[in-house]
Amino acid sequence: MKTETLQENTEDVTETLPKNSLGIKKFVTYAILVLMVFISAMMVVFQIFEYRNDFRQLNSYMREKEDINAEWGRLLIEQQTFGATAQIGTRAVTQLRMYSPPAAQTVVISLPMTSQQKN
């Protein structure tokens, strides 16, 4: 009887050890899976954060590009204006035979000053 009780107790202990071992393995497995899901979720959040920062930066670069293109257009118009002035001068000399008179032929006319202009 004592041997039977002792054997039953040892069988109970040996049966509970694998169950506890199996329970620990399941817990560790679930803990690892939960940790991996958490890490994956954090990586998704980080990627979305990076995407939004990159998108904001892209928008600022696009606005800067538009501003630079607008300035380039203004500079082209200014260049054409100065080029047109030179063309007008060249055509005036060649086609209309216009010229700047020498200093001996230049007359300066000054208007008399009124009392309001003196003050």
Automatic annotation (TrEMBL):
It comes from the Bacteria. It holds the Pfam family FtsL. GO terms for cellular component: cell division site; plasma membrane. InterPro entries: Cell_div_FtsL (IPR011922). It is found in: Cell inner membrane; Cell membrane. It is a single-pass type II membrane protein. Keywords: Cell cycle, Cell division, Cell inner membrane, Cell membrane, Membrane, Transmembrane, Transmembrane helix. Part of a complex composed of FtsB, FtsL and FtsQ. Belongs to the FtsL family. This is Cell division protein FtsL. It comes from Acinetobacter stercoris. The gene is ftsL.
